[in-house]
Amino acid sequence: QLHRRGFRCLHGVDGSAGMLEQAWSTGLYQELRLCVLGAEPLPAPAEHYDAVTVVGALGEGQVPSTVLPELLRVTKPGGFLCLTTRSNPSNLRYKAELEAALGQLERSGAWQKLLAQEVEYWERATTEEESTQDTGYISGVVYIYQKCPVPHLEEG
């Protein structure tokens, strides 16, 4: 979808070499690197990217919410971060922790929330217990934040 909308310089990271091979086979990425989010720094300099996305990784037993400052580090001031998580029962504790961390960074002035949108039919449920209101799907949330510009200090 990003490529269809004109984004041509795409870099990606994943903790799985097999997933990186699959991503490379799409022909959409200019750079792919092995990196375990939350366990090691992103392989990019500070303030490098106009936009950072994390889709399908922020969840219980996956990428910890403590990764947020590292995502901010590699985003340019004024740049955008698009993050997602699921709202299924087994992810509610993680979602609450994530939203607390998102809010703390917003209150500190690191970024500004532009959108927090619930998506009812996020992905197919693998069990009835995980299905949102017996729809066969798991709901989720898309968050979009803009990194605040670094304030300029006045001379004098």
Number of domains: 2
Oligomer: single chain
Proportion of residues in β-strands: 25-35%
Q: How much helix, percentage-wise, in residues? A: 10-25%
Determine the N-to-C terminus distance. 48 Å
Q: Mind describing the biggest β-sheet?
A: 4 strands, mixed
Q: Could you list the spans in which at least 5 consecutive residues all have pLDDT below 50?
A: none
Structural account:
The chain has 156 residues and is of the alpha/beta class. It folds into two domains: 1-34, no CATH class; 42-147, Rossmann fold. Helix content is 20%, strand content 33%. The protein contains three helices and six strands, in the order βαββαβαββ. Strands 3-4-6-5 form a four-stranded mixed beta sheet. It has a two-stranded parallel sheet with strand order 1-2. It is globular, with a radius of gyration of 17 Å. The model has no long low-confidence stretch (mean pLDDT 92). GO terms for molecular function: S-adenosylmethionine-dependent methyltransferase activity. This is MET27 protein. Pfam families: Methyltransf_11 (PF08241). InterPro entries: Methyltransf_11, SAM-dependent_MTases_sf.
